[in-house]
Automatic annotation (TrEMBL):
GO molecular function: protein disulfide isomerase activity; protein-disulfide reductase activity
UniProt domain Thioredoxin: residue ranges: 8-123, 124-276
Biased composition (Gly residues): 153-162
Catalytic activity, reaction form: Catalyzes the rearrangement of -S-S- bonds in proteins
Quaternary assembly: Part of a large chaperone multiprotein complex comprising DNAJB11, HSP90B1, HSPA5, HYOU, PDIA2, PDIA4, PDIA6, PPIB, SDF2L1, UGGT1 and very small amounts of ERP29, but not, or at very low levels, CALR nor CANX. Interacts with MICA on the surface of tumor cells, leading to MICA disulfide bond reduction which is required for its release from tumor cells. Interacts with ITGB3 following platelet stimulation. Interacts with ERN1; the interaction is direct. Interacts with EIF2AK3.
Record's function text: May function as a chaperone that inhibits aggregation of misfolded proteins. Negatively regulates the unfolded protein response (UPR) through binding to UPR sensors such as ERN1, which in turn inactivates ERN1 signaling. May also regulate the UPR via the EIF2AK3 UPR sensor. Plays a role in platelet aggregation and activation by agonists such as convulxin, collagen and thrombin.
Keywords: Disulfide bond, Endoplasmic reticulum, Isomerase, Redox-active center, Repeat, Signal
Subcellular location: Endoplasmic reticulum lumen
GO biological process, one term: response to endoplasmic reticulum stress
Taxonomic source organism: Salmo trutta (Brown trout)
Keyword Disulfide bond: yes
Gene: PDIA6
Leader sequence segment: 1-20
Name under which the protein is recorded: Protein disulfide-isomerase A6
Amino acid sequence: TRRALIGLLLGCSLVFMVQGFYSASDDVVELNPSNFNQEVLQSDSVWLIEFYAPWCGHCQSLTADWKKTATALKGIVKVGAVDADQHKSLGGQYSVRGFPTIKIFGANKNKPDDYQGGRSSQAIVDGALNALQTLVKDRMSGRSGGSDYSRQSGGGGGGGSGSKKDVVELTDDNFDRLVLNSDEVWLVEFFAPWCGHCKSLEPEWAAAASAVKEQTKDKVHLGAVDATVHQGLASRYGIRGFPTIKIFKKGEEPEDYQGGRTRGDIIAGALDLFSDNAAPPELLEILNADVLKKTCDDYQLCVIAVLPHILDTGAAGRNGYLEVMMKMAEKYKKKMWGWLWTEAGAQMELEASLGIGGFGYPAMAAINARKMKFALLKGSFSETGIHEFLRDLSVGRGSTATVGGGALPIINSVEAWDGKDGELPVEDDYDLSDVDLDDNFGKDEL
C-alpha cells in the first residue's frame, strides 16, 4: 500500500541518515571487525580513530572537523572511524564507554593511547603530529614505544617541564630499600605503559618531581612503578587501576593520594606532606657574611629581622620577638624560606641596603637574592602583621625595591648573643675632689 511504501522509504532514509556520517568520498576510513586487523593492526602507520555512535550529538558535531582532519593528514597519518554502536565488539575490545572516544594507534597497535586534547580539527591534527613525532624518535633510537620513565618522550622539552631523571624508577628489587626503609616521604605512581591516562600524567609527574626535589631539598621523592612488569608490587598494594598514586611514610601504612593530577596539584600535595613531616627552618643570627650568603643563596626568600638593641628590650623582650619569628617560620615552613635576625646597629651596611636606616625597630625585610629585590614589612611586627606581609609576598603582591648596590652588602663578624640582658658599658671613674668649683656657678644674674 501507499502507506507501507512511505513507511519503507522513511525507514530507508532513517537508516541512510544514521549510517551516513562518512562516505567513500571522504578521507576518513570506515573501520569494522572485517577490516580492522588488516588496515590498522598490521599497519606501520599511525592511526587516529574515532569510536562513535550515530545517535550521539557530540559525534555529529565532530563529523565536520573529523573529515577536515583526515584531509589535512592524508598521506601522513591515517584517520578512521568505527561505528561502535553497530560494532560493539570493537568498542568493547578497546574499553570504549562513551562517545565520541578518540584513540591513537602508534608504535604498539595493541596498546593505543587515549587522545585527550581539544576537538577542533587543528587540535586533533596537532595531537596526531605529536604522536607521529614520538614514533619517529622511537624508531631512530631503536625503541618500540610505550611509557617509560627512564627516557625522555617526544615533544621538544623546555618550558620548565622537568626531567624524568628526577622520577625514581622503582622495581621489585629496590622498592623496600628505597621506599620502605627511607625516613623520607615518597609519592609513588603505579602505571601501565598502555594506559592513556598514565601517558597524560607522565609529563606532569616528571615536572612535579623536579620541582619537589628542589623545593624540599630532596626530602620528598616521586617514584614510578611499571605495574605490568613488577606485578609483585602491584599485588602487594592492591593496584587495580592505572594510574594509582600512593603515599609512603616510614612506619605508616601507605595511603591513597587524593589530590589533583596537574603538576601544580602534585607539587602542592608534596609540599603539604613535607611541611607535615618537616621541622621548621632554623632561625639564625647573622654572625658573619657566610651565614647571610648561604641562607639567601639557598632559599627563594630570606626573611631578615632587625631587632632593637638588647639594652632597649632586655632578654625577655628579644625572646618575645624571636618567638614570633619562629611561629611564622613554622607557619610558612613549606615555602622553604630562610630566616635570619640581627641586632640594630650590628650590620649597618645591611640596614642601609634595605632602607631601614637606623630607626623603626623591630624591622623586617624579605630578600630574593636571585633578583636582588627586597620588600619591607609595613605593618606591625606581630604574628598578624608578619602573616599579612608574607601572604602578600607569596601571591605576588606588595611593593619591592632593588637591594642597595645591587648585591648583598658587607657583613661584619660579630659575637653571638649570649641570651642574657645587656649591660651598660663600664666607664672610667673621675675624682672630682680636686676640681675647684666657682661659688657663683649657676648664680648668674639676668
